[in-house]
Automatic annotation (TrEMBL):
<dbReference type="InterPro" id="IPR001452">
    <property type="entry name" value="SH3_domain"/>
</dbReference>
<dbReference type="InterPro" id="IPR036028">
    <property type="entry name" value="SH3-like_dom_sf"/>
</dbReference>
<dbReference type="InterPro" id="IPR008145">
    <property type="entry name" value="GK/Ca_channel_bsu"/>
</dbReference>
<dbReference type="Pfam" id="PF00018">
    <property type="entry name" value="SH3_1"/>
</dbReference>
<dbReference type="InterPro" id="IPR020590">
    <property type="entry name" value="Guanylate_kinase_CS"/>
</dbReference>
<dbReference type="Pfam" id="PF00595">
    <property type="entry name" value="PDZ"/>
</dbReference>
<dbReference type="InterPro" id="IPR001478">
    <property type="entry name" value="PDZ"/>
</dbReference>
<dbReference type="Pfam" id="PF02828">
    <property type="entry name" value="L27"/>
</dbReference>
<comment type="similarity">
    <text>Belongs to the MAGUK family.</text>
</comment>
<dbReference type="InterPro" id="IPR004172">
    <property type="entry name" value="L27_dom"/>
</dbReference>
<dbReference type="InterPro" id="IPR036892">
    <property type="entry name" value="L27_dom_sf"/>
</dbReference>
<keyword id="KW-0728">SH3 domain</keyword>
<feature type="domain" description="L27">
    <location>
        <begin position="61"/>
        <end position="118"/>
    </location>
</feature>
<dbReference type="InterPro" id="IPR008144">
    <property type="entry name" value="Guanylate_kin-like_dom"/>
</dbReference>
<feature type="domain" description="PDZ">
    <location>
        <begin position="137"/>
        <end position="218"/>
    </location>
</feature>
<feature type="domain" description="L27">
    <location>
        <begin position="6"/>
        <end position="60"/>
    </location>
</feature>
<dbReference type="InterPro" id="IPR050716">
    <property type="entry name" value="MAGUK"/>
</dbReference>
Amino acid sequence: MPIVSANTGLHETLALLTSQLHPDANHKEDLVFLKDVFSEKSLSYLMKIHEKLKQYEKQSPTPVLHSASCLAEDLAEELQSGPLEDDERELLLLLSTPHLKAVLSAHDTVAQKNFDPVLPPLPEDLDDDLEEESVKIVRLVKNKEPLGATIRRDEATGAVIVARIMRGGAADRSGLVHVGDELREVNGNLITHKRPDEISQILSQSQGSITLKIIPAVGEEDKLKESRVYLRALFDYTPFEDKATPCQEAGLPFRKGDILQVVSQEDSTWWQAKKVGDCNLRAALIPSTQFQESLRRSFRLRKDRHASPGEAHTPDANPTEFLIYEEVTQYLPRPGDRPRLIVLIGRSACIEKEKLELILRGNKFAIKHTQGKYCLYTTRARKCHEREGVEYHFITKTAFEADIQNSKFIEYGEYKDNLYGTSLESIHRILDQNKVCLVDVQPEALKTIRTAAFKPYIIFARPRVSINQGKQLGSSSSLSLGITEEDLQEMKQSAEQMEERYGHWVDYVLVKEDPVSALAELQVVLERVQLEPQWVPVSWVRS
């Protein structure tokens, strides 16, 4: 037999004992059974926990005194009673500071409190029908946060069953409540005859300690594996306005364009997710894509309502625009990758094209520059100062119409009997030369260029000036630019419509106050696109 000393740990002793179990012919079955029991990982973990508790019992630090605050006050009074030396005066000053008083008060609170774990007593008046069942008494501590669990009524038995455990919530952190557990009592009150919404209200309104009487689920415990699926929300969601949600307090409110990390998709109807950038670590419920069809119909009706005559011609809408989520990942161009297409939408007239070209030409960029006008084709006659392929590409009306039929334009339109269009081929040619290409297009064109080939970074230039601000600014700004109150109203409505219909595709909102500040802000954004990873559709990276 191995030598076991007093310092040998309990789990080490168990391991030594297991190694000595050699089955023989006479007691083979018994020894095999015993070895299997001793080899169980759960038993080894229990032994380690037992040792840690014994060490805590032996080495638990004890406070020197329980009233450090009183001692400090007595010392301060003693110092104030007579003349002070420099070091005594400094000590008195330290003892009078609120920070030190707070630290000493916290010390006394901890010193006077017993932190040993206290288990709730097992109720003596157990129901007769529970005598043959395994009953678990769970005590959880929660503040104003939700319990982090939803419940349902079993249609066959009428039992109240734990339906979901929200990742990071109080129930999940405890490790004591599992999906499928039957809930019998809350704080000593029988809840088997209450409706699930009544029980949820009791749980949400409870503060501090909550005692639950539970019959554990039969079978394996819930083993959720946190996924790494990220979604961009394509609609606004407010759980307190959703009557279909199983628990409104467990819902996750989000706005169009928010990035959500889905941590569980085991429930086909309600997924668990967190909002990226939110300091709250608890997961909450979001509707799954099963709701997509109903929302798709709603989006289509809203789209038809907002459609207005005179919009730029673009190819047919992509069916994916009606999805409620878009799976995304972070992307940063690698050496050798084409630059991302920079797209401006909105009323960007105040961003002067010549100054913008100077920014793109600056030394801060390791790549060459270009601008949207290099991609423009027109049927009008070339002016004497214009150069072919610089200001515009000048082609005949017949050639232009043929290019329309061959889908060679992102967008096109007519102005003063002349046709103008932005060429797809020209953009590809510029990007292939490792140049930054910036195009200023109507938002409808995003349906064509928002692809893996371009990986566009979309900037929405939104005006800040309201109608009242326009009146106050007078001739020095808006009036000097020839902008009337009607223009301001139209700009405001156009911006709102654009955000409503295309806001979920926008990577950055550039709020324009004046051309100088807009250009400076735009320069910072363009640098960030080259240096920092951005969220893009997964299909752009996988394709």
